[in-house]
């Protein structure tokens, strides 16, 4: 299902930790249980009224691939340029639908059109059962000009 086996491992871990709930709580995710994939993990805080997203933690492999560290920054035009709306809407779908999404995206929005990303975005719940964080696993790979995928594809994953 995933190009990178680490994303499959993260998805299996998330499913195991959620139990009978729609998603696990952040406190159910224990970094010491998944040390081999910490470098591809990205945590995004979810704020309500108005809906907003802020980068909490970004794994070292992601920072290296993107050539920047956006820890502490908001999901907005400053970071994502013309793609900000699409990125925001994708995160909103994860939060509102309370379900994981898989994404494929060419990274031309950061002037790296030869680089693509496969990501897995999964909700995490607070004690009241609301999504307060999104757990992301991201894997990057090189693509050619003839890569047959549109700028950004996303689809929900059945759990």
Structure report:
- This protein is of the alpha+beta class and about 160 residues long.
- About 25% of the residues lie in helices and about 30% in strands.
- The chain has four helices and six strands.
- The protein has a six-stranded antiparallel sheet.
- A hairpin with a 5-residue loop joins β4 and β5.
- It is globular, with a radius of gyration of 15 Å.
- The two termini are about 15 Å apart.
According to DSSP, the number of beta strands is: 6
Uncertain runs: none
Beta-strand content bin: 25-35%
Shape: globular
What share of residues is helical? 10-25%
Cα(first) to Cα(last) distance is 13 Å
SSE string, helices as H and strands as E: HEEHHHEEEE
| Rg, Å, rounded | 15 Å
Main β-sheet, spatial strand arrangement: 2-1-5-4-3-6
Q: How does the helix and strand content classify structurally? A: alpha+beta
Please give the largest β-sheet. 6 strands, antiparallel
Number of helices: 4
The average pLDDT value, as a whole number, equals 90
